[in-house]
Amino acid sequence: MPQYLKYNRHLPQFKVVEKYFSEEEIDRIIDLEDLQEFSQGKVGTASGELNKSARNSDISWLFPNQQSQWVFDKFGHLLGQVNHDAFMYDVDGFESFQYTKYNKEQHYDWHFDVHTEYLMWERKISATIILSDPREYSGGELEVIHTGSPEKAYCARPNKGDVVFFASWMSHRVRPVKKGLRRSLVAWVMGKRVC
Known about the structure:
alpha+beta; Jelly Rolls; 8-stranded antiparallel sheet; 14% helix; globular
């Protein structure tokens, strides 16, 4: 069968949008933290399992309401642009945000965000909104194997307000925090399973 470029352009399935959320907007998100109840992050699907060697973080869920709807709206607007520029996936929306905190020694080892069992809806794009200034903590680097080569993985402590997008099947991790506190919002963009 002859080969051709389906979209006639390179689709990296990875993108960093710098300072999309302003300092003031990030402060408004962090203010919502007082309304959240945090629990230990788990690994796996459904109820998951507690495995601190694989994942040690504190999480809460941010649902759309009167105080947070603006975050969903702003992120949704960006998502449309980024999907067009870097993914061209058939997506329908995104799950509620997972608010994640990593204190000293907390981390999340290598994993990917897609489920292994068959589901009608699947995660297609993962996104991380950085809520902490990288000067406020050390360690806690986000690593994403976005080129297929672990030696060329994206490895950074993005700036406060940056949003990192990558295909949900890409392996990624958060290295252990050495000092301070790393905060982020995580979103998974969903679409119907193709096959």
